[in-house]
Amino acid sequence: MNLGNFNKQPVEIIDYDIDYSEWLTPGDNVQAASVEVVPVGLAVESTFINDPRVKIWVSGGTTGTTYKLTVTVTTADGRVKQDEFKVKVKDI
C-alpha cells in the first residue's frame, strides 16, 4: 500500500509513524519491521516497534532526489505486510 509522499530538507532528521492497528487481527502483534530505501542516499537511523505502530527515523538525502521506502512488517502469527512511501529531499 502506498502511504503517501513527504518532503524533507537534507539536514533534517525526521520520524514517520505507521499504525497497523486496523490491519492486525485480535491477539496478533507486530514482531519485526525492516525498511529498504531506493536509491541509496537516505539513511534509516532507526526503526522502533511500539505495537501496533512502527516508527522510522530518517536523515540525509540528496537535494532533488525522491526516495522510496519499503516497510515490511511480520507479526507474531506470521502475517507479513508491506507498505511504501516516498520522501523527496529538497532544500527550501
Report on this structure.
- By secondary structure, the protein is mainly beta.
- Helices cover 0% and strands 65% of the residues.
- The protein is built from no helices and 7 strands.
- The protein has strands at residues 2-8, 13-19, 30-38, 42-50, 53-60, 66-75, 80-89.
- Strands 1-7-6-3 form a 4-stranded mixed β-sheet, with no helix packed on it.
- A hairpin with a 4-residue loop joins strand 6 (66-75) and strand 7.
- The chain is elongated.
- The mean pLDDT is 96.
Q: Mind sketching the topology for me?
A:
Elements: E1 2-8, E2 13-19, E3 30-38, E4 42-50, E5 53-60, E6 66-75, E7 80-89
Parallel strand pairs: 1-7
Antiparallel strand pairs: 2-5, 3-6, 4-5, 6-7
Tally of DSSP β-strands: 7
**Which series of helices and strands comes N to C?**
EEEEEEE
- Uncertain segments of ≥5 residues (pLDDT<50)? none
What is the percent of helical residues?
under 10%
- Beta-sheet strand percentage? over 45%
Q: Judging from the principal axes of the Cα atoms, what is the shape?
A: elongated
Rg over CA atoms, rounded to whole Å, is 14 Å
Mean pLDDT score, rounded? 96
**N- to C-terminal distance:** 29 Å
Strand order of the largest sheet: 1-7-6-3
Query: Largest sheet, if any?
Result: 4 strands, mixed
What is the oligomer described by this structure? single chain
Pairing-aware structural class of the strands and helices?
A: mainly beta
Number of helices: 0
